Amino acid sequence: xxxxxxxxxxxxxxxxxxxxxxxxxxxxxxxxxxxxxxxxxxxxxxxxxxxxxxxxxxxxxxxxxxxxxxxxxxxxxxxxxxxxxxxxxxxxxxxxxxxxxxxxxxxxxxxxxxxxxxxxxxxxxxxxxxxxxxxxxxxxxxxxxx
Length: 146
Fold this sequence. Notes:
With 146 residues, the chain is mostly beta strands. It is built from two helices and eleven strands; from the N terminus they run E-E-E-E-E-E-E-E-E-E-H-E-H. Helix content is 8%, strand content 53%.
């Protein structure tokens, strides 16, 4: 598979969730991708455990307030950018970038104070993209040109 060139920032779509043009930061130093969410909790429904969360927060332009339920999740021990360890839930979401759909794992985290609600890490980039730090928003530019 030919690797695509991606810049330091871009925009992704989450087609299964109806989210388009979501700004993201490309971070080859982060192992796993992360997405901003709130109200993350485990719910029991008919005897089965589900992870419940809402993407973004009320002030974010993409916020819908829609509760997302999944039983396809794991809890991982993650080292934060400050070097501290904490447990976070991880889910797989379908993303679209450069008109290509694929599933990738996201840590659910509070990114409210970050400039970008999504961080794309090396596990998502691996075998798909080459990062050119002199470029920005290449997928988005290609999308709006057509």
